[in-house]
Amino acid sequence: MSSPKQLIEGFQRFRERSFADDDAQFHDLVQFGQTPSMLVVGCCDSRVDPALILDCAPGDLFVIRNVANLVPPAENQGHYHGTSAALEFGVRNLAVQHIIVLGHAQCGGIHALLEGGVAKDDSFIAEWMRIADAAREHTEQELAGASSEVRHRACEQQAILVSLNNLMTFSWIRERVEQGRLALHGWYFDIERGELLGYNATTRQFETL
Ligand SMILES: [Zn+2]
Is 27 exposed, middle or buried (0-12, 13-18, 19+ CB in 10 A)? Predict the structure, then answer.
């Protein structure tokens, strides 16, 4: 797919499927609004669209996508916090019951973090990826002599745990988790093997779901 014209043609097909009559998919979504119970934090990578890989329909998922599916810690300085604002809306307004941080193999953001492939001075990415610095440090300490594939995979998974920890720095998330009204999940989409893994807090491993 290489042209916006193809997207417009795609929209026509989507429209015929989704808006054709009163039973169509969007009829209830428009009439009653969105009530997703799950929020996914995914990566911008074009290969890992959460709704596509999890086979979801419109209205099923509240999705936040950013570089390397990172959740920043809660902070109140005068910056623009797109991810935090979306989290707030999903949790406080929509009252989602699950938050899934969905990482993936071959993540370009994690690659830049580990290999230092981003110029520091004029890059938004370098600053953004500092959120996952603890994951990089952990990987470099634990897997110094390992292959790049092993290190990248470990850092991609470790960054998911950093984001899960950061989620708990938002008071309105922590309270809901402690009250049992909200559950947090760390998932990893292995695009090389076609597998979905989930973090098991008991074994401290990512395991096939
Ligand atoms: Zn990515």
Answer: middle
Q: How many A from CA of 139 to the centre of ligand 1?
A: 17
Going by pLDDT thresholds of 50, 70 and 90, the confidence category of residue 120 is: low
Taking the centre of ligand 1 as the mean of its atom positions, its distance from the CA of residue 66, in whole angstroms, is 8
Single pTM value for the model: 0.94
CA of 69 to the centre of ligand 1 (A): 7
Q: What is the mean pLDDT of residues 10-22?
A: 86
Which residues make Cβ contacts (< 8 Å) with residue 85, sequence separation at least 6? none
| CA–centroid distance, residue 110 to ligand 1 (Å) | 7
Tell me the domains of the chain and their CATH numbers.
1-33 (no CATH), 34-208 (3.40.1050.10)
